[in-house]
From TrEMBL:
Ranges that cross the membrane: 20-42, 87-105, 117-140
Domain of life (superkingdom): Eukaryota
The keyword Cytoplasm appears for this protein: no
Keyword Lipid biosynthesis tagged: no
InterPro entries on file: 7tm6_olfct_rcpt (IPR004117)
Keywords, comma-separated and alphabetical: Cell membrane, Membrane, Olfaction, Receptor, Sensory transduction, Transducer, Transmembrane, Transmembrane helix
Alphabetized GO MF terms: odorant binding; olfactory receptor activity
Cellular-component GO terms for this entry: plasma membrane
Membrane topology field: Multi-pass membrane protein
An example Gene Ontology biological process: signal transduction
A Pfam family this chain is assigned to: 7tm_6
Identification of the protein by name: GM16381
Amino acid sequence: MNLSNYIISYFWNVCDALGVALPTVCLDTLFCSLSHNLCALFQIARHKMMHFEGRNTKETRENLKHVFQLYAVCLDLGHFLNEYFRPLIFAQFLAASLHLCVLCYQLSANILQPALLFYAAFTAAVVGQVSIYCFCGSSVHSECQLFGQAIYESSWPHLMQENLELVSSLKIAMMRSSLGCPIDGYFFEANRETLIAIVRTAISYVTLLRSLA
C-alpha cells in the first residue's frame, strides 16, 4: 500500500534474482567458451595430423612429434577442464533431475491454467542449462575421438615403405583417441545420451505419479 516500501521490496527482489542468475550464467558461459576453445585445438591437431608429411624422413618425424605434442596438450587441457568443472556438473545434473520431476508434474497438473506459462518457461530454462553442458561435453569427446579418423585419412601408407616405427606410433595414437576425452560429473557423463535419459526419467516419473493419483 506504500509506494516507497513497494519500490524497496521490488529493488530487493531484483537484486536477489540477479545475485542468483549472474553467477550461474557466468559459470555456464565460461564452461561453454573453454570447451569450444578446446574443440578448436583438437581440430587444429586433426588438420596438422592430416598434413604431417614432410620432404624427408627427418622432417616427417619432427612434424609428427609436434602433432602428438599438441594432441597431448589438448588431452591435458581436457583433463583439467573436467577436474575443475566436475563438481559443478554433478550439482547441475542433480538439481536439474529434481527440478524436471517437479516441473513436469506441475505442468501436467496445471494444464489450461495461467501458471502453465511460468512452469513451461522454468522447464525450458532448466533443460537449456543442462543442454549446454551435455552439448559441450559431447563435442569435446567426439572431437578427441576424431583424431583417430584424421590419422586414418593421413598419408600413413607412405610411411610403411620408409619407417615402420612411425607407423607403430600412429597405431598407439589411434588407440588413445578411441578413448576420447569424456567430461563427466562423477556418476554420469555429460553428453546427449545423458540429457535424453534425464528428460525421459522425469517424464516416466511424472507418468507414474499421475497413474497413482
